[in-house]
Amino acid sequence: MSVLSECVSKSNLTNRVFNESQLRDLLGGSDARRYALVNRALKDNSVIKIKRGQYILNPKIYSQNIHPFAIAQAMVHGSYISFETALAYYGWIPEAVYTIASVTPERKTIVYNNDKIGHFTFQPLAINQFQFLQGVERVRLNNLTAFVAQPLRALMDLVALRKITWRDLGWVINGLRVDESHLLSLGKKDFAKLKSIYMHKAANNFLQELEKSVLALKANAKNGNRYD
After folding, report:
1. pTM of the full structure
2. How many domains does the chain have?
3. How far apart, in whole angstroms, are the C-alpha atoms of residue 31 and residue 173?
4. Partner of 110 at 20 to 30 A CA spacing, among 78, 124, 151, 158?
5. Which domain holds residue 38?
């Protein structure tokens, strides 16, 4: 194991993503010495590079448990987990999701593909000012936290990203395979807090029609009927 990884493992950076500034404070010395220590640690695989200037200890060596959501937050500050990733996290869709997908406050799509830690994407959306984190909650992940879109927000982010136009509930129930029980758990407050988020008319229309259909679904459920 490398000198750098041993130093990090004995510090408060053990189960965190750490950067060049934190290494400077931890190791001291010259920049050249620090760069040499980083290169040695990367070479012996005791440290994994997340992206330029960001690293974690190798989980296989140090038994780390850094959640990939926390890694995503470190990759792009101000982003939040959404789309199918958030829907799968809350159990709204049955399929396993292998990409950690986030919404970024930046204007460009960002992709990080790391064979050691996974595939990460960051997508921009047309969101009204001061509404970026509406319907997003702070989730505790071991000793770290991450911002994760609540299920309806994640669903609507997906609608906005793919520019889905409303037809009926088929795309949600049959396409995404969202169980009716999850839709029945939604209330008027859930829809109300999302109504000022999206800049595009199609997304807002989808949200409006979805709310109407969920209310109808609830009425049918009371009568013992199911959506076909």
Report:
1. 0.91
2. 2
3. 55
4. 151
5. 3-62
